[in-house]
Amino acid sequence: MGDMTKTEVGTGTGRRVSEARERLLRTAGQLFYAEGIHTVGVDRLVAESKVTNATFYRHFRSKEDLAVAYIGSVDQAIRTQIGSLTGADAPADGILTGIGASLVEQIRSPGYRGCAFLNAATEFPDPDHPVHRAVVQHRAWFLHTITGLFAQITTAQAERAGQHFVMLRDGAMSAGHLGDPVLAGETLLRGIEGLLRIHTARGPDESTASGPGRTRSATTVPDIECSPPRP
What is the pTM of this model? Predict the structure, then answer.
C-alpha cells in the first residue's frame, strides 16, 4: 500500500503525488548529502526507502536521474525561502545579512559536510552532465537574486557585489566543512558587513539604501540551506 499514489487535497488540480517517490527523494537527499552520490547504490536506496526495484525505476530512470531530482529539491526549497522574503517589504541589506546569518547556522550545525551543490559538481565535473547542469542553473539563479538585492541598494557595480557575495559564501561553506566552522561563520559575516558598507557608499538611492544613522538589522531567514532537510 505504501507505493500507491495519492491525490493532492485542496489543489483543484487532481495532480497525483507518489508517496514512494517522495520517500525515495527524501532518503536520497539524506544519503547523497552525508555520503556522496557515487557512494550510495540503488539497492541501498531501495532498501532504506522501503520500496521495490520496480517502483524505483517507475519513478526514476537511473540513480543519476534521482540525483538530478535531489539537486532540484534543494534548489526549490531555497528559491521558496528566499522568494518569501524578496516578495515581502524587507530592506535588501537586511535580507542579505539574514541570508548570511542563516548560512552561519548551517555551517555550525551537526552533520554539516559542505554545500550540496558544490559537492555534486565535484562528483560530476563534466559540464554537460545533467547533475552538473542542475548545479550551474541553481548558482546562476542564486547569483541573479543576490545581484538584484544589491541593485536595490544601488545599481553601481551591483553585479560585482553579487559575485563577491557568492564567493564569500562558497569559501565559508567549504572552510566550515574543512576547518573551523565558528571561524568560517564569523569571517563570512564580517565579509558581508564590509561588502554592504562598501556597496552602500558607491551612490545609494536615498529611498532604499541604508544611510547615516540607520542601523542595519538582519531579516530572519529560516533554513536557507545548501543541503537537504534533516529528519
Answer: 0.79
